[in-house]
Amino acid sequence: MPLATDDFLDIDDVTPVELDALLDRAAAMKAGETDPRLGDSTLGMIFEKPSTRTRVSFETGMTRLGGHAMFLGPDDIQLGHGEPLRDTARVLGRYVDGVMARLFDHDDVETLAEYADCPVINGLTDEAHPCQTLADLLTIRETVGEDATVAWVGDGNNVGQSFVVGAAMAGIDVEVATPADYGMNPAVFDRAAAFGADVTPTTDPEAAIDGADIVYTDVWISMGQEDEREEKLAAFDGFQVNADLLAGTDAKVMHCLPAHRGEEVTNDVLESDRALVWDQAENRMHAQNALLVELLGGE
Questions:
Q1: What is the predicted pLDDT for the residue at 80?
Q2: Nearest partner of 296 among 108, 67, 13, judged by Cα
Q3: Which residue positions in the chain have pLDDT lower than 70?
Q4: Rounded to whole angstroms, how far apart are CA atoms 161 and 152?
Q5: Which of 37, 44, 248, 290 meets the CB 3.0–4.6 Å disulfide criterion with 26?
Q6: Which positions make up the binding site for L-ornithine?
Q7: Which of 234, 250, 157, 160 is nearest to 199 (CA)?
Q8: How many other C-beta atoms are found inside a 10 Å radius of the C-beta of residue 283?
Q9: Partners of 99 in the beta sheet?
Q10: How many CB atoms lie within 10 A of CB 223?
């Protein structure tokens, strides 16, 4: 079933039915039940910021699909060196079969999609990380099942915002606990409500994790926020995912990585049997491979 969208900038660019089909395809490809190919397709990968999982998962995935991935860092192309982004987009659209962009400003990925004559995938912006959500939902399917209740504990950042909407689309209940000044954009809860979810955020982590099957956290100080470090560490006191917070629960733990061990999550939790983080990391590639096949027309 081809996707109705040409680009994947936010998780709700696809419908719940399409999301379910993407996850089905990802699971089948991961299990070796189907082996679609992308022929000689090339994916241009634009990076404004460093990455481990995004770069390696997309590059390896394209190779496994029979295609080619091209790394385009800030020193490799004219992006940010005087050429308007729309011009870069127009040129890339005539060379490559798809573009994956990991950028700071969400408006920039929208500009790429507007002017590039090929599919554009959001590999991360300051507002959204939909590819991570695909991997998260695949991981939940495999481990806990879609009847899961997930508690998001920590910063109301791009990863959390995409996850809340994606979980709503998949019928997964989510509780959100963030410090008062670091919550999610209220529009995120409106988008989730459009899929039948009723998410009421709280500032109480213990209340959020009550009855949760999974506790999901992410870094408190994201890339580019280093100057806010001391202020944030003070504001997030009590939000660390540690043995005390998890005591009395059987909850598994998710984290999109990289983790700042000793800040948002402790080392012992990440190294325990509770951690699903390595499955999440692996599933970035499987989920994205399914997305690439759908957007680039694999056979």
A1: 65
A2: 67
A3: 1, 80
A4: 10
A5: 290
A6: 158, 218, 222-223
A7: 160
A8: 26
A9: 44, 120
A10: 14
d(CA 15, CA 132): 17
Question: Can you give the pLDDT at residue 33?
Answer: 98
pLDDT of residue 225: 74
The DSSP result for 67-113, as a single string, is -EEEEE-TTTSSBTTTB-HHHHHHHHHHH-SEEEEE-S-HHHHHHHH
Give all domains of the chain, ordered by start, each with its CATH number.
7-129+284-296 (3.40.50.1370), 132-281 (3.40.50.1370)
With the CA atoms of 118, 121, 127 and 133 taken in that order, what torsion angle do they form, in degrees rounded to the nearest 10?
150
Positions at the binding site for carbamoyl phosphate? 51-54, 78, 102, 129-132, 256-257, 284
CA distance 198 to 208: 14
Residue numbering of the annotated binding site: 51-54, 78, 102, 129-132, 158, 218, 222-223, 256-257, 284
Residues 8/295, Cβ–Cβ less than 8 Å? yes
